[in-house]
């Protein structure tokens, strides 16, 4: 039987995270398909992922490219794109079934961070409210979309950064997203590594630059080139 939901997880050198993520998803394999798309890892990520996924795909590096490849190989009627360091709520599959049955064609979850620091509660609150106001979903919020709607918008634009914002803008033309109150829990590791305030300021600058037409490839160099 075709699974109702295909969960697509793009990976690049995530040996420290991938096994824990996939172990947490094993209980869903009776009703969901787990697809890991590797973008050229050299740290053993694929060895760890292989026995825990329904499909392990290899493709060119780039989150948009990897997620599009996973979607092309998916069997589910609905696609759920999940970051390797983001955990789904226990009711994720049930809620997605419900909202799709109600007529929603795409949506996302509220987000929380895995840090007890108050600043991360504030950041999550701002992210969730911004998403509700704008109808834009970020990758950390576990975006889901019906197979048909994904095909209608042509999948993720093949850009190096801001692919989540770009596809949200396209999907909004098909209808508003369902903003699910159940929370995914995502890692605060990158915020902690680079500093909360510098990361906030950088993301604001990058989003503003993207809004005014900056090349996503240049923005990716600024984002991934942090030291």
Please describe the structure with a list of short key phrases separated by commas or semicolons:
19% strand; globular; Spore Coat Polysaccharide Biosynthesis Protein SpsA, Chain A; 227 residues; 43% helix; alpha/beta; Nucleotide-diphossugar_trans
Describe this structure in words.
The protein is of the alpha/beta class. It has one domain (5-224): Spore Coat Polysaccharide Biosynthesis Protein SpsA, Chain A, CATH 3.90.550.10. It has helices spanning 18-25, 45-49, 63-72, 92-101, 118-134, 147-152, 163-172, 189-194, 196-211, 216-224, and strands spanning 5-11, 32-38, 55-58, 78-81, 86-87, 106-113, 144-146, 178-186. An 8-stranded mixed beta sheet has the order 3-2-1-4-7-6-8-5. Helix 9 (196-211) packs antiparallel against helix 10. It holds the Pfam family Glycos_transf_2. Its main location: membrane. It comes from Methylomonas aurea. This is TIGR04283 family arsenosugar biosynthesis glycosyltransferase. Residues 6-118 form the Glycosyltransferase 2-like domain.
Radius of gyration: 17 Å
Mean pLDDT, all residues: 92
**What is the 3D shape?**
globular
Instruction: Give helix % range.
Output: 40-55%
- What's the CATH class label? Alpha Beta
Within CATH, the superfamily carries the name Spore Coat Polysaccharide Biosynthesis Protein SpsA, Chain A
Distance between the termini: 47 Å
Number of strands: 8
Total number of distinct structural domains: 1
Say what the CATH topology is: Spore Coat Polysaccharide Biosynthesis Protein SpsA, Chain A
Major sheet summary line: 8 strands, mixed
Order of helices and strands: EHEHEHEEHEHEHHEHHH
**CATH architecture heading:** Alpha-Beta Complex
Tally of helical runs = 10
Classify the beta-strand content into a percent band.
Answer: 15-25%
Low-confidence spans: none
User: Within the largest sheet, what's the order of strands?
Assistant: 3-2-1-4-7-6-8-5
Tell me the structural class: alpha/beta
Protein name: TIGR04283 family arsenosugar biosynthesis glycosyltransferase
Subcellular location: Cell membrane
InterPro entries: Glyco_trans_2-like, Nucleotide-diphossugar_trans, Trfase_2_rSAM/seldom_assoc
Domain Glycosyltransferase 2-like: 6-118
